[in-house]
Amino acid sequence: MFSDLAKLFLGMVALERKKIERYIWGLPPRIHGSVVASKLVTFDSAKQLAQSLVDHGVSQGFMTVFPKQPIKGKNNNNNTNKNNEEVLKQKEGVMHCNNCNRKEHTACFGKAPAKPITQVLGVDVGQACYGCGEVGHYKRDFPNSRNVGGVGRVLAIGQNKAIADPMVVTEVLLNIREEIGQDVFALLVDESSDVSKKEQMAIVLRYVDSLGFMKERFIGLVHVKDTSSLTPKNTINEVLTSNKLSFSQIRGQGYDGASNMRGEFNGLKALILQENDMDFYVHCFAYQLQLVVVAIAKKHDGVSDFFEQISLVVNVVCASCKRKDLLREQARERVQKGLCSGELEIGRGLNQETTLVRSGEIRWGHFNTLTSLMKLFADVLVVLDFVKEEGGSLENCQQASGILAYFKSYEFVFYLHMMYDILHLTGTLSQQLQIKDLDILEAASMVRGTMEALQSFRNIGFASILPKVSSFCETHEIDTLDMEEFYIGARSCRTTKTNRFHFEVEIFNTVVDMQLTEYRDRFSETSTQLLEYTGALSPCDSFAQFDKSKLFKLGKLYKYDFDDSDMIDLDGQLKIFYHFCIKDERFASLKGISDLSRLMVSTGKHQSYPLFYKLFKLALILPVATARVERCFSKMKLLKSDLRNKIGDEFLNNLLLRNVETEALAKVENEKVMERFQKMSARRGQN
Q: For residue 217, which of 277, 256, 177, 250 has the smallest C-alpha distance?
């Protein structure tokens, strides 16, 4: 009752919150932060906590109860404006923290201490200072040092906000460097521009750790002002040197298709091969897969016109909010009718399409667009009819009329189903190639499987497409064609070829043959000697592909890793290992070389057969795709956005390492970060 009455007369009665603030303001700096961080709601509890902290500090010896100050004006040797320590601080020209006597507090001091003062009293506080262990530091507790150009910063930040500090990032890189040691690794590099239009280069290392696990670790994002091949090479050298690594440890390269990366004469690939000729290059599988679809769209006129019309319809239908609302309304009504009639099923994730998906610039955006168009085809036709009648301008009406005429043709429906089936096969391969920790043998097997599926589709696909095309045409009232009649070409000109010949030979067979040819040309690595020899390491089907002669030849390719005496020992180890594995049940059900690597370490066989295990690691680190690098760029675009476009390069690199390498970050111990900071000879804010 009294508290409620006090709120009506704020000037006459001091509220409890004001009393607590005034009381805390007069507390000694040593306990001031702890009381603030506790966020107490009653004056008595604040007073009790402060007294407990003082008693605890006195008993532990880090606080002293001073006698009363002498009366002002009386002679006293102790009555000086500043003690000797404060005078020394002034002479140094740097202001110090009142709590822990440190100079120029920064974010790197924020952490959760092992045993803060308040922990003894049962108060749950998780933020404290590296220097003094105090909690609740605020800006007023940190002086501004004008002499050195520094400004005091708020320290009440906690571990999560201080995690991007250079000290923590250094420990993350140290953990990665310790995992690699003097072992070999593969290099994955790609470039992308950020929101500030700066060309950023991401560097990822692929290696096998001490437990036999294949890992891909991001080690740095560097701003490159010149994208010529020499600049990335020098930048990579600087990053590797700073992490105590070298070009001599590289055994594989993986880039995208840019000429400054993979150029045979002046590209980054060639420059690194000059440093180390054992650095085998493997073109990014996922990027090559993208080039296959792009090549087909450029070389075949019918496919090119088809995708051009797909792009136009997305622009027309999604050009205004009114058209989008009409599309959603039509989709809602169609779903309601389908559910009432039983044509559509009810289930999780079903009937969710409400708009057309715009094609992406890379990879499989076209497949998503075709999927949404097939589900919303009837609704799209309604929107196009609306634009044709009430498009506003003659140009819009004519454009919608042209798209409608093409969409209601048998040829469009045939292209729609044919490209949907082709992209469905290649889209599945694209998703598989982006799996984390994918080894090159498994990737090559996926590529071969996709090529075999395409070849099978070439043989029997036309017969399977025709019923689906006819059913689609009947559903949407589109005229079907008799395959035995003569084909009518442009401008209603009757030709001497039948509809079957046109659709099967001139369209279907031609497009699928072009697709298969592009696959064989783009994925030439799948038939190289390197992969042929590496395939003999596969443990599938109880080492059915094991071939000692091929593995011996594989060892000869790595002349810096196996000398003449090693090759003699390797020959013996291969014989013994094979006979051992085929009799051990633990090695009978392995699915890939990654499983074999982990099993060898867990059973200690990597020490019994060290040369064979070394050969194994060289095969594991061969790069497959740059998906890991592209994930780094996806994170970069989230961190450096339009609203945070002024982030510096160093800070962006630290943030990206913290967000990408979460597994390595979890291994960083706070004590190591504190120890590293204490050993620094020069700290921020010190002369």
A: 177
